[in-house]
Amino acid sequence: MNLQSKALLIIAATLLGQIALLLVASQTLFLESFRLTEEAAVRKDLVTVRRALAQHVASLEMVAGDWAMRDDAAAFLQNRNPAYAERQLHERTFANLRLNWVVLLQPSRKIAHAGGYDLIVGRTTPVPEPVLQRLRDARVTPEWGAPTDSVSG
Questions:
Q1: Which of 8, 65, 91, 112 is deepest in the core (most CB within 10 A)?
Q2: C-alpha torsion sign, points 34, 36, 37, 43
Q3: In the prediction, which pLDDT does 63 show?
Q4: Is 101 strand, coil or helix?
Q5: 143, 150 contact by CB (below 8 A)
Q6: HEC sequence for the chain
């Protein structure tokens, strides 16, 4: 191998080494930068979602509080008059409030009414039995003292 070939081979190897080093360094820097940028965007989106959920829970809490203070709702929990459910818990109620389930519990934690609605299809559905069982078994409500006691979340 002559001197010119050796020099060309050394230059080519050096150039390839520099390209490889530059590629590794740039990928490490850029990938880390993109990862950090993406992580920041996801964190911002999570804050937005949490705020939206909190607003929705607050809105539902106001509606539930309004219903709880009504005389006809209290009467329904005592005597389970089906006319109340037909008047107040129809498909339009579910759609307007963007609810999938409404479960009304008596102070004894017995289920007075359980209704479901598929918001995507737009039709009534039953509340899944595991959900009802969890409501029956778990302590999801506080010990009620005053008529104005509530829990949300």
A1: 112
A2: positive
A3: 85
A4: strand
A5: no
A6: CCHHHHHHHHHHHHHHHHHHHHHHHHHHHHHHHHHHHHHHHHHHHHHHHHHHHHHHHHHHHHHHHHHHCCHHHHHHHHHCCHHHHHHHCCHHHHHHHCCCEEEEECCCCCEEEEEEEECCCCEEECCCHHHHHHHHHCCCCCCCCCCCCCCCC
| Helices 71-79/3-68 angle, 10° precision | 90
Instruction: Report how far residue 38's alpha carbon sits from residue 132's, in angstroms, rounded to the nearest whole number.
Output: 39
State CA 18 to chain mean position distance: 49
Q: What are the beta bridge partners of residue 123?
A: 118
Q: What is the pLDDT of residues 43-78, one digit of tens each?
A: 999 999 999 999 988 888 888 878 777 778 888 888
For residues 53 and 39, what is the distance between their CA atoms, to the nearest angstrom?
A: 21
- Reported as a single tens digit per residue, the pLDDT across 102-148 is 888 887 778 888 999 999 999 999 999 999 888 887 665 555 556 56
Q: Across the strands, what pairs with 137?
A: none
What are 76's two structure tokens? Answer: 């329904």
Of 18-22, 88-92, 113-117, least confident by mean pLDDT is: 88-92
* pLDDT in the model for residue 49: 97
Q: How many CB atoms lie within 10 A of CB 107?
A: 12
